Amino acid sequence: MTTQPATVESRSAFFNYKNKQIHYLQFGNGAKKMIALHGYGDRAELFLPIAPALSQHYTVYAIDLPYHGDTVWDTNDLYSLADVVGMIDHLRQNENIERFSLMGYSMGGKVALGLIPLYIQHIDDLILLAGAGIRWADMAYRVPLWMAHRIGSFVERPHTFMAMLHQARKRRLIGHSVFKMYSLFMEKESRRRKLYHTWLSLYDFKISISHIQQLLNQYQVAVYLLHGAKDQAVPLSDSIFFAKKLKKAQLTILDDGHWFIKESLNKQLSKLFH
């Protein structure tokens, strides 16, 4: 057991899926169960700064998705939505999880949305933190498949991609924070390959937002959306669009950008879940 600065203890554990070791963290002792999915380039520990607020209401299971954290998954081996379902099913069996809340941050929001139609009868509520994949407005997921494969050439020739980023920034198509983020991803070949294969894996996650909204309304699932007003990676308009057609949605707009999961968020979450 490890003790975090906010005095919330976490347990690190693994389970086997397709001969791969999938890592997850458990923290909190709330009555409700929660499965949490991190964003790109993150890991399960992403959620520890907000563990104090979550732990009051939830027992949280945060999974390291493929290519991330301590999960052992070859970066040359793509994964599918069916693989994520397989991992969730293994986790639920291991931890005796029947009903659960689902939380996703950024890329994890897109994964969470893909899971809704498959687990709708088991979901208590949905929490999206700067959730991606709502209107395909995030550049990484809206290019044609043939172009996505061509982008794979940037793994070996990153300078071409960086030149495109510079032009996009110059024309104000992307902000400084997004430029800085992708520049970091392009630094090493291992990072570029990880980004590309994550991109290809998520590209195949077929999501119908209208169908998801219909299901959430039909099963009266409470939806909490938190989004930074200054988010340059996933636009705030995505969460606004998603919330408009939901009967039980609550949108909280933060005076922040994309990376807002930090200890200061605990106060906001405590009020939200009260």
CATH class (first level) name: Alpha Beta
Put simply, the count of helices is: 10
Looking at this structure, what is the CATH superfamily?
Answer: Alpha/Beta hydrolase fold, catalytic domain
End-to-end distance, in Å? Answer: 28 Å
Q: Oligomeric state of the chains?
A: single chain
Order of helices and strands: EEEEHEHEHEHHHHHEHEH
So, CATH architecture?
3-Layer(aba) Sandwich
What's the number of domains? 1
| Helical residues, percent | 25-40%
Describe this structure in words.
The protein has helices at 51-55, 81-95, 107-119, 145-151, 158-170, 176-185, 189-203, 209-218, 236-244, 265-273, and strands at residues 2-3, 9-17, 20-27, 32-37, 58-63, 100-105, 123-129, 222-228, 249-254. It is an alpha/beta fold and 274 residues long. The protein has one domain (2-140, 205-273): 3-Layer(aba) Sandwich (Rossmann fold), CATH 3.40.50.1820. A 9-stranded mixed beta sheet has the order 1-2-3-5-4-6-7-8-9. The two termini are 28 Å apart. Mean pLDDT is 87; it is low at 1-5 and 137-141.
Question: What does this entry show, briefly?
Answer:
The chain has 274 residues and is α/β, with parallel strands linked by helices.
List the helices and strands and how they pair.
Elements: E1 2-3, E2 9-17, E3 20-27, E4 32-37, H1 51-55, E5 58-63, H2 81-95, E6 100-105, H3 107-119, E7 123-129, H4 145-151, H5 158-170, H6 176-185, H7 189-203, H8 209-218, E8 222-228, H9 236-244, E9 249-254, H10 265-273
Parallel strand pairs: 4-5, 4-6, 6-7, 7-8, 8-9
Antiparallel strand pairs: 1-2, 2-3, 3-5
Helix pairs in contact: 4-7, 5-6
